[in-house]
Design brief:
Layout lengths: L4 E5 L5 H14 L3 E5 L7 H17 L3 E5 L8 H8 L6 E4 L5 H17 L8 E6 L2 H5 L1 H5 L7 E5 H7 L12 H13 L3 E5 L5 H7 L3 E4 L5 H8 L3 H15 L8 E3 L2 E3 L1 H11 L8
């Protein structure tokens, strides 16, 4: 299973529109459906009620569910987690992360709720949303802050706003930010995901991103096609895994063609075969 297409459902819609949007999202069959509790203009009780509905129905449809709670310093995180932590929740995307302690605080709370509800600690993954220059410069520390961190989200529009980039400059002029986010995640064998409007999907896939957060259900098929590894990539990954698995038990590395395969390369190959550990591809 992959995290290629992550379809966001707008929690601020009127009730009837929200119900339609949710059903359309399920019908589109993305890899995951995301619901955010961070809309300040919508009553938090309404957001939590809707989040519970989305998480349950989405999980029943066999689609991954992702929640976006409020930042730890808002004082709302504990109550948000109390609402959304359940067997239906696959991951949490934590917004506006600026430092590693934000991740550690959230991880402690998640562990508390997992234990209280009979889950294995670490069941729910954490992904920090990087939306500022400060956070991007500390991305390695942030992603390394807790074992349950599964990757990072680059909010390209938030980052562009933070560095005061103009709209027409968001393309190639922000290549460093995109490349840095991918390098950090891949170096730690985590998943880099991107969020933003008017995204150039093929360029982002070629940069190394695993998937994208978007809002249009009609884009699911296109997104999945763009971000699915090629047959060649998958064959090469299987060859790497096979070589490392079958190496001499006393050897530290395996040889494949003109290169060697160590544990790091084997784990990266495994990420191509099984991006979300424990799930079928």
């Amino acid at each position: 299973m992959f995290f290629r297409s992550i379809l966001s459902v707008d929690i601020s819609l009127e009730e009837e529109e929200f119900q339609i949007a949710h059903q359309n999202a399920i019908s589109a069959q993305p890899d995951a459906i995301l619901i955010s509790l961070t809309q300040s203009e919508v009553d938090i009780k309404i957001q939590r009620e809707r989040a519970e509905l989305v998480l349950s129905a989405t999980s029943e449809a066999g689609i991954y569910t992702i929640g976006v709670p409020n930042h730890p310093r808002t004082g709302l995180l504990r109550s948000d987690l109390n609402t959304i932590v359940s067997k239906d929740l696959k991951a949490i995307f934590l917004p506006d992360i600026g430092e590693p302690q934000d991740i550690r605080d959230a991880a402690v709370l998640l562990r508390e709720f997992e234990l209280a509800r009979g889950f294995e600690p670490g069941t729910i993954s954490l992904f920090p949303i990087i939306s500022s220059a400060r956070a991007l410069l500390r991305a390695f520390e942030i992603v390394s802050a807790a074992p349950r961190v599964g990757g990072l989200i680059l909010d390209i529009d938030g980052y562009a706003h933070d560095v005061r980039a103009r709209f027409e400059q968001r393309g190639s002029r922000l290549a460093w930010a995109r490349g840095n986010a991918v390098a950090v995640a891949r170096a730690l064998i985590k998943l880099p995901i991107v969020k933003g409007d008017d995204l150039e999907l093929r360029e982002l896939a070629n940069t190394g991103f695993e998937g994208v957060i978007f809002e249009d259900p009609k884009m699911v098929t296109v997104v999945n096609d763009v971000f699915t590894p090629t047959d060649t990539e998958i064959e090469e990954a299987h060859a790497v895994r096979r070589a490392f698995t079958e190496k001499d038990e006393n050897a530290l590395v395996a040889r494949l063609g003109g290169s060697f395969i160590d544990e790091y390369k084997a784990r990266k190959a495994e990420q191509i075969i099984d991006p979300i550990p424990g799930e079928d591809t």
